[in-house]
Amino acid sequence: MIELGLAACASVAWGASDFAAGVAARRRSVLVVLAASQCTGLVLAMLALALAGASAPSGPALLSAALAGAFEAIGFGALYAALARGPMGVVAPAAALGGVIPLASGVIGGERLGMLAATGCIAALVAVVLVSREPADGRTQPGLAPGLSLALLSAAAFGLFFLFLDLAADEAPFIWGVAIARATAVVLVVPVLTWHVVRRRSRGSALAVSPGSSERPRAGGESGSSWVAAREVGALAVVGVLDIAANLLFAWGASRADGPLVGVVGSTYPVFTVLLAAGLLGERLALTQRAGVVLALAASALIVL
Question: Which helix H or strand E contains 199, and what residues bound it?
Fold first, then answer.
């Protein structure tokens, strides 16, 4: 039962990480949140790699892990943007449907699709339809459509991330795959953030010298929502700490388990994001959306069985 406890802890950490990232992305640039969490996660992954003392992987495993990292960066970027714009109670379960991608890859490769997995795929499609419906009582949900679209993009990217990470794990220890993937994500995200900051500063300088301009840049040429104060680094780092901790806990639990229950328990992480959003942000979903959330969670569990 220890492995199930590890998976449950991983689920809580993943859910809390997504919630914290969504809240942070509503106050700061998604790129800032993404870079801070990825860099923090990389430090912890490298520390875990040093403690594990695992041998270095071969070329093919390196390539697979690097591709996983590229899709991980896309997945987290889309997820954080979705959590910032749309209802977290809808976004989190929708973004968790990425397990369909590795499943589809297996079917294309000649594997037979089991009854439970097929049911999970159908349930996932129905869930997306349900959560995308606006409340019938006339209430509007700002950001529902773009948030859901970004969540589905995130699900697709994470599905490819898991697919390539699994390929890397066939030839190398899991911790190596995680570390290389995270390093690749950082290499991709940090230059984009740097370009974003330089561009905004240049734009701010241009506004400052433009005759008749009514806009004035803030200190350093940055807007209050695009950069981050030193005191907030710790809060952003928590996102990366929780994410990497969840990865390691889940990997530890999976290595001790023979059956699929660890995957099922781990797939429940959107529940905690939904609960935190409801309890701390006061989010309320329509009845059909609640049904869609439950169905999405069930679909995620069925797909990993």
Answer: helix 174-209
First CA to last CA distance, the chain: 18
Is there a domain that residue 214 lies in? no
Q: How many CB atoms lie within 10 A of CB 205?
A: 12
Give pLDDT, residue 208. Answer: 53
Counted domains in the chain: 1
pLDDT for residue 103: 81
Residue 215 lies in a domain: no
Residue 187: burial class (beta carbons within 10 Å; 0-12, 13-18, 19+): middle
Give the integer Cα–Cα distance in Å for 173 and 178.
Answer: 9
Query: Looking at the domain assignment, is residue 213 inside a domain?
Result: no
* 228, 27 Cβ separation under 8 angstroms: no
Q: Give the alpha-carbon dihedral of 304, 14, 164, 41, to 10 degrees.
A: -160
Report the sign of the C-alpha dihedral through residues 17, 22, 26, 30, in that order: positive
What is the maximum span of the chain, computed from C-alpha positions, in angstroms?
Answer: 70
- Rounded Cα–Cα distance for residues 302 and 305 (Å): 5
Answer yes or no: is 226 within a domain: yes
Render pLDDT for 184-224 as a digit per residue (tens, 0 to 9). 999 999 999 888 888 877 776 555 555 554 444 443 334 44
226: pLDDT strictly greater than 60: no
Residue 285's domain comprises 2-208+221-304
CA nearest neighbour of 186 among 40, 29, 22: 40
pLDDT of 254 > 80? The answer is no
Distance CA 15, CA 174 (A): 22
**Cα dist. 212→206, 209, 215, 216 in Å?**
12, 9, 9, 11
In the chain, DSSP finds a helix count (H) and a strand count (E) of: 12, 0
Q: How far is CA 288 from each of CA 18, 49, 186, 233, 234, rounded to the nearest angstrom?
A: 23, 45, 39, 38, 38
Alpha carbons 141 and 145: distance in angstroms, whole number: 9
